[in-house]
Design brief:
Elements (H helix, E strand, L loop, with lengths): L6 H12 L3 H14 L7 H19 L17 E9 L5 H9 L16 E7 L2 E7 L13 H5 L3 E7 L4 H14 L3 E4 L3 E2 L7 E10 L10 H9 L4 E3 L8 H12 L1 E6 L15 E4 L4 H8 L1 H6 L2 E5 L7 E4 L9 E5 L2
Helix pairs in contact: 1-2, 2-3
């Protein structure tokens, strides 16, 4: 049976698509529910509207400070995170999240599809990244911007629709909100040594839909991103083009290195068949040992290091700084 939706319903639906806040979405959905013709042909659509309205009312009643609060568990030593996936409504965040993590986060053509953060692991070689698909952000609605979550994040992916010229300016307004706060974006994660209380979080601008024909020129955008030390990369969540390069860029930006633990017991096999332990570039073997157990970090005195391509190990002290790919055997004497 045809739905025969009325002009009043269509106007309310457009209001929902144009909504820039949860309150505006709730109001538009309530009007859609009032205006929709009540017959068998619209039963499924009515159920979808009621379900979405119920979820939005829960979000609306929460304090704004809790809407984008991220709760993460302790991550395994081979996983980097959290990596926040942020951007404007309909930028392609959830589609990118699904492509990288093989998840099934809801994807739709209307804005604010994602109401709460979704977490999943993206695999890259023998490590992982904990990605968080965040609700859409708007520069004119500060409550939608995950500033608190950014302070504790390892990295932020700023997703930009490459087919829409207006999103560039809106995205930079969003970035300015970060830069005017104490949770700023840039090339590296850490504390700002010049401004007390300000944290810096590494960020990558991710241009989605690079497989589409109607991409717009981004010369001015590239200059602005370069001025903020934010690298950019083009991907297609639809075809997967550029996704491996993005995962590689996340690893490079994280400044992490992979170190493999070798047991003192014989017959344990090749350490590189096991998952690595991630530490920061410049960390020493004490930091590595702490990832295994704090008692071991206190107890060991030296270590053997096998470098890539080398057969004979080096014997080194506790303060030695390993490289990416090193195999380490901690010694008690």
């Amino acid at each position: 049976m045809p739905a025969n939706l009325t002009p009043q319903f269509r106007r309310a639906e457009q209001r929902f698509r144009d909504a820039k806040s949860v309150a505006q979405q709730v109001s538009a959905l309530e009007e859609m529910l009032r205006e929709i013709p009540k017959h068998k042909g619209t039963e499924k659509l009515q159920a979808e509207i009621k379900s979405r309205l119920s979820k939005l009312r829960v979000v609306e009643q929460e304090p704004s400070s809790k809407r984008v609060r991220v709760k993460t568990d302790t991550l395994p030593p081979h996983v980097i995170g959290p990596v926040l996936v942020v951007g404007l409504p309909n930028a392609g965040k959830s589609r990118l999240f699904n492509r990288l993590t093989s998840s099934n986060s809801l994807v739709a053509e209307y804005p604010f599809t994602t109401l709460q953060p979704h977490s999943a692991i993206a695999s890259y070689q023998d490590i992982g990244f904990q990605l968080l698909d965040m609700p859409a952000s708007l520069a004119e609605s500060p409550d939608t911007i995950p500033l608190d979550a950014t302070r504790s994040a390892a990295m932020v992916l700023i997703v930009i629709d490459s087919t829409c010229r207006s999103t560039d300016e809106q995205t930079f307004q969003l970035i300015e909100q970060f830069q005017n706060s104490k949770s700023r974006l840039g090339k590296r994660t850490g504390y700002d040594e010049q401004i007390r209380g300000v944290t810096l979080t590494a960020a990558i601008a991710v241009y989605t839909k690079c497989d589409c024909q109607r991409q717009v020129s981004r010369r001015s955008t590239a200059r602005k991103l370069a001025a903020l030390d934010i690298p950019s990369i083009e991907i297609s969540a639809e075809t997967g083009e550029g996704c491996d390069a993005l995962l590689s860029a996340i690893f490079m930006q994280s400044l992490a290195i992979r170190v493999y633990a070798k047991s003192l017991k014989k017959g344990k096999g090749d350490p590189k068949n096991n998952l690595p332990i991630l530490i920061k570039q410049g960390d020493n073997l004490t930091h590595f040992a702490l990832q295994i157990h704090q008692d071991l970090a206190k107890r060991f005195q030296s270590a053997k290091i096998w470098r890539v391509g080398e057969v004979t190990p080096m014997v080194v002290h506790r303060e030695f700084q390993p490289r990416d790919g090193d195999i380490v055997q901690l010694l008690n004497q």
